[in-house]
Design brief:
By secondary structure, this protein is an alpha/beta fold. The protein has 2 domains: 203 residues, Glycogen Phosphorylase B (Rossmann fold), CATH 3.40.50.2000; 175 residues, Glycogen Phosphorylase B (Rossmann fold), CATH 3.40.50.2000. It is built from 16 helices and 12 strands. The longest helix has 17 residues.
């Protein structure tokens, strides 16, 4: 977004956590990375974060128990106090026209609320639902859930404008809070340097179904897919000669155990974490691409990876036929879907790939509407609207 906002004449300052990395961000006039307790010795899970980011070959673990305690998220303790102080300091030194806060973490929106009190127009962006189909585990106590929803209401009702990245998130915000929430989806960058990626070997004799990225962080699991693979092999003994499923990205310890099971070893393999250019190149060299969702429990999901898949213009299989991801893929004519938790249906979908059943490709117009130049034009119009 910063790259294309800058080209439209916007001067962008990015305020983020030191955990997010280092260096410049294309298009940003300034990048301010604040102190964060998660980057200090106080974080006993630093090894987990290194594995999650693909910096080590180790598998990562599940969510911290603190996630069931701190409202609305751990960043409220580890980052928010430093972010608020820095944001107020920046606003005093430079006359910003607008602030955009993006969640998760949901506590980041409280930075926007602090600046709104000082007269700054504020756009609150929901990249996941907050209390609606939240990616985190439910709080164990009713008082926690009530407090969390009170915070959500506080943010939605005080923001100058609210953005959701999928239609179900937008519809929920409109229904529960009566706000004129706007839909601006995730997207892809047409200027990504795919050629810079390192090739990942695929078996040219077999149909390559590729999944890039993480799964457990969004609470999805490969278990039904792998059960579908076992079923497919029982029904079709030659399946291993015709199909390979490749996972590129960090795995949780549970995922590593599932994928390493001997029952799927002839079809399923992992290549570990790869950098982003290599992931993009792999997407374009695959025969088809895989999206794994939670299905009916989180229908609103349509991750950024999905739009990279659209840009790759390869057939997409979405596990989760009730989801927004499946709707987007099918509306674009870019692939098809299967139930997220039905090994029988998944086996049938895999067989469809092996059989080479024709899948009509997405039109360039259907893909282009999800490019960041198009999406940022809509965002720039909203920025102008609230700033006026």
């Amino acid at each position: 977004m910063t790259r294309y906002l800058a080209r439209l004449g916007h001067s962008v300052t990015v305020l983020t956590s030191g955990v997010s990395g280092e260096g410049e961000i294309d298009g940003a006039q300034a990048v301010v990375r604040t102190y964060d307790l998660m980057a200090t010795q106080l974080n006993w899970r630093r090894g987990h974060f290194a594995a999650l980011g693909g910096q080590t070959p180790a598998s990562y673990r599940g969510a911290s128990r603190l996630e069931s305690v701190v409202i609305p998220d751990i960043a409220a303790v580890s980052w928010l106090p430093f972010a608020c102080r820095q944001a107020i300091s920046l606003a005093k030194s430079e006359p910003f026209d607008c602030v955009i806060t993006s969640s998760p973490p949901q506590s980041g929106h409280l930075v926007g609320a602090a600046l709104k009190r000082r007269g700054l127009p504020w756009i609150a962006e929901f990249r996941d639902g907050w209390t609606f189909e939240s990616p985190r585990r439910p709080y164990p106590f009713g008082w926690q859930r009530r407090a969390d929803q009170t915070l959500e209401r506080f943010v939605v009702e005080r923001a100058s404008a609210v953005v959701g990245v999928t239609a179900p998130i937008v519809d929920d915000l409109r229904r529960r809070y009566g706000t004129d929430a706007r839909l601006i989806t995730n997207g892809f960058d047409p200027e990504d340097d795919v050629a810079a990626g390192t090739p990942v070997a695929l078996d040219e004799r077999r149909h390559s179904l590729v999944h890039t990225g993480r799964m457990a962080i969004s609470r999805s699991t490969p278990r039904p897919l792998l059960e579908g693979v076992v079923r497919l092999q029982a029904e079709m003994p030659t399946a291993a000669d015709l199909l390979e499923i490749v996972f590129a990205g960090p795995l949780s310890s549970q995922e590593a155990e599932l994928v390493g099971d001997a029952g799927v070893a002839r079809i399923v393999r992992t290549v570990g974490a790869v950098d982003r250019p290599s992931a993009l190149r792999l997407q374009r060299e695959a025969d088809s691409l895989l999206v794994i969702t939670e299905g009916s429990t989180r229908k609103s999901v349509a991750t950024g990876k999905l739009f990279e898949y659209l840009a790759a213009n390869r057939p997409i299989l979405v596990l989760g036929e009730e989801t927004e991801a499946a709707r987007i893929v099918e509306d674009a004519g870019a692939g098809f879907s299967a139930p997220a938790d039905d090994p029988v249906g998944i086996a049938a979908a895999l067989r469809r790939l092996i059989d080479g059943t024709p899948i009509s490709g997405a039109s360039s117009a259907a893909i282009e509407r999800y490019s960041y130049p198009e999406l940022v034009r809509a965002y720039a119009a909203l920025i102008d609207e609230v700033s006026a």
